[in-house]
Amino acid sequence: MNRFSDITEKPSNFLDYIINQGLKGYHILFDNDQIRRAFEKKDKEFARMSTNKIQEVRNALQEILTRPNMEEKKEFIAQLPEDTRHVLILLYFQILEKNLLSQKARPH
């Protein structure tokens, strides 16, 4: 069985799964090319963030959560406007970074 088998649980469980896989280095919703392009345009994409773009990313995330299987989620992401996809990827990595930082032991 493929370790990236489809997730049919509640959206919060799906998000937990995606984050846990990401923390292990498996970015299953995005391919390496998509990730590379997003980081190449990181400063440009965040500088252009508008209320409309934030809403587009929210809508995209909600749509991803409604897709029934991983392949359909990935196909939907691939069809997003490039700037929306870039922001989605960059936000995903920010979430991963915050999770990593929160797991580190803090000195007393």
Task: Give structural notes.
The protein has 108 residues and is mainly α. It has one domain (11-95). 70% of the residues lie in helices and 0% in strands. The protein has six helices and no strands. The chain is globular, with a radius of gyration of 14 Å. The termini are far apart. The model is unreliable at 1-9 (pLDDT under 50).
Question: Which terms would index this structure?
Answer:
single chain; 108 residues; mainly alpha; 6 helices; 70% helix
- Sheet-strand content, in percent, reads under 5%
Q: How many domains, as an integer?
A: 1
Number of strands: 0
Oligomer: single chain
Order of helices and strands: HHHHHH
Broad structural category: mainly alpha
Taking pLDDT < 50 over at least 5 consecutive residues as the criterion, the unreliable ranges are 1-9
Number of helices: 6
Cα distance spanning the termini:
44 Å
Report the C-alpha radius of gyration, rounded.
14 Å
Blueprint of the fold:
Layout: H1 11-23, H2 32-40, H3 42-47, H4 51-66, H5 70-79, H6 82-103
What is the gist of this entry?
This protein is an all-alpha fold and 108 residues long. The chain has helices spanning 11-23, 32-40, 42-47, 51-66, 70-79, 82-103.
